[in-house]
Description:
Elements lengths: L12 H15 L6 H11 L7 H8 L7 H11 L3 H6 L7 H10 L3 H12 L2 H16 L1
Helix pairs in contact: 2-3
Amino acid sequence: MAFEANFGYMKKDSELFGERLKQALVDAGYEVRPVVLEREFNQRYWGRSVSVQAVRKWLYGNAVPNQDKLQVIAEWLNVDPHWLRFGETLAGSVQQQRQRWDAKMTPQERQLVERFMQLPSHKRKLVGQLFLALLDE
């Protein structure tokens, strides 16, 4: 927790997370508005959609999302997930992690991912749900 000089008030972890989330949104060129965060997050997240009220809690420091949601936010905003959650950066940035993942792909796999990313967001979400359903069998 961070210490604030005014009256010894210590900010909660969730409040500090909210500040970092706002900064990441601004740095990525997005408006700091719950409806923007909700729309952009739900287009990228393959699980159950989140509400505007839930993302409002993230933005204003009342809650921190689960790790799976945090990973999606960090990847979307191109920030280190550990920094987003805790305010610290671990060795190896998001970009370095992406390069390692991409390096292991065959040209055919890379082309498949590129074509997948060209789909409209609702179709990407549908393909993701189908993929997860197949994994559950």
